[in-house]
Amino acid sequence: ETQKHLAHLGEEKSRLEGLIDATLIQLKTIGVEAHESLIDADDFPRQDVDVYAARQARSELSRLKNDYKIVLRQIEEALAAVHATASPSSPTHVAPTSKTTPAESASAATIASAASGQQQHHQHQQEQQAPFLQINTVTAGSPADRAGLKAGDLVVRFGSLIRSNFTGLPAVGELVRHSEGKSLMLTVQRGAALTIVRLVPARWAGQGLVGCHIVEHKP
User: What predicted TM-score, i.e. pTM, was given to this entire model?
Assistant: First the structure.
């Protein structure tokens, strides 16, 4: 049971690390650092960056970092429980044995998991930056057109959707319907560059809420 719990916490830790990295990339494409001021010398919002997008990304980053701290604390508590089980309070002298206790097995499994953690982190980071949608067509005058989306854009992030949690195009439609009148932050790849796009699904003269045809992108 302890091993399963530690494995789950390790997976959650890697997932959060990937999301944190993806959000930091979003901030860089917006043109600001995590703690850089969004106010100019005259105390007005900066005109050289999308202040709204930067604030949204920072809010998401703060939430992810808080979740990450909680997971790290849970891992520490689980490891402490493992070591407490492996080291009884009343020492007993026993003959050496080649057998391994369950607690020692759990500890060994945790060490092995930590050793491969860096590799998993890099794999997860690459997954967060992998496109999973493609903008096929954009109708003139539509919300997608006003947002600046272009045919051929590869979508790396669509609101809360990324490759690792993408289950199919119906999930995109559901997210759009629940976001009518609200901002959806998209990270799109154009050539070698990543661009942040703020899309606001809304009723317009055409069909649907966004006015673009989205297809699944498979590398």
Answer: 0.50
